[in-house]
Design brief:
The chain is mostly helical. Helix content is about 85%, strand content about 0%. Helix 4 crosses helix 7.
Length: about 240
């Protein structure tokens, strides 16, 4: 784990240098943005809606029995923005797009396409990693914002259906508990999650050696590592912004 973390840091530094050298093509970034976030948008929004619906069902009865049903909207809003939307969207993108990144680069490695790029005196890390990192850092926050909206609105629908809570009462506390600071932290989280997913999965694919069997093993390992590093990043961000 420590060795792999060191490789990720080294590759990230190479990508930063490559980006500031002005060699990254806009078309590559746009293509990767579509692969990473646009194609993952439906499943991300479905997960956000279901998560909000389940949480609303779980808390509605308890809030109703204590006479605090008006606070359901604020609670769902806070939960979705602070944790559920960024975390679940990142997990969905990591499972779908992250593994695809790892498999693609691993396949290039085992078929010697990476070596062919090196013969042209092109840095393969910068060439392959940079567009994916930029695309993930920009577009994952966009998906998260949409997921937050869908989750909050989904909670409103379920609360109305489950305990007949008036939408106005739901939205009143939703707006009351909504703070721009939480939205900014959520966007920052999503940006960092996108970078971590793209960097970890690309690094795992780049380190693949062998044949087709190793590509499958590397892809599985990329999914696990991206999840672990994303959760560690989530813990650090929460500690810095909400505790320290």
């Amino acid at each position: 784990m420590i060795r792999f973390l060191g490789l990720c840091v080294q590759n990230f530094i190479k990508c930063i240098k490559y980006i500031f050298s002005g060699q990254v093509r806009f078309s590559s970034v746009l293509n990767q943005a579509a692969i990473i976030s646009y194609d993952s948008l439906p499943i991300s929004l479905i997960i956000a809606f279901i998560a909000a619906a389940v949480i609303t069902i779980q808390v509605s009865k308890q809030f109703l029995m204590s006479g605090a049903e008006a606070y359901i909207g604020g609670s769902i809003t806070l939960i979705m923005i602070r944790e559920i939307a960024p975390g679940f969207v990142a997990l969905a993108i990591g499972a779908r797009a992250g593994t695809a990144i790892s498999a693609e680069i691993a396949n290039m490695q085992v078929t010697s396409q990476i070596d062919a790029i090196k013969t042209l005196k092109i840095d393969p890390v910068g060439y392959y990693f940079s567009p994916r990192i930029i695309a993930a850092a920009i577009t994952v926050p966009m998906v998260v914002l949409l997921a937050e909206f869908v989750g909050i609105m989904g909670g409103r629908l379920v609360a109305e259906a489950a305990i007949n809570l008036h939408p106005a009462r739901y939205m009143q506390t939703a707006w009351l508990w909504l703070h721009l600071r939480d939205v900014y932290i959520s966007i920052f989280k999503a940006c960092m999650f996108g970078i971590v997913i793209a960097l970890v999965c690309a690094t795992q694919g780049y380190e693949t050696k062998g044949g087709a069997k190793e590509v499958g093993i590397s892809t599985t390992r990329a999914a696990i590592l991206s999840t672990v590093y994303m959760l560690c990043t989530d813990f650090i961000i929460n500690f810095v912004f909400y505790i320290a």
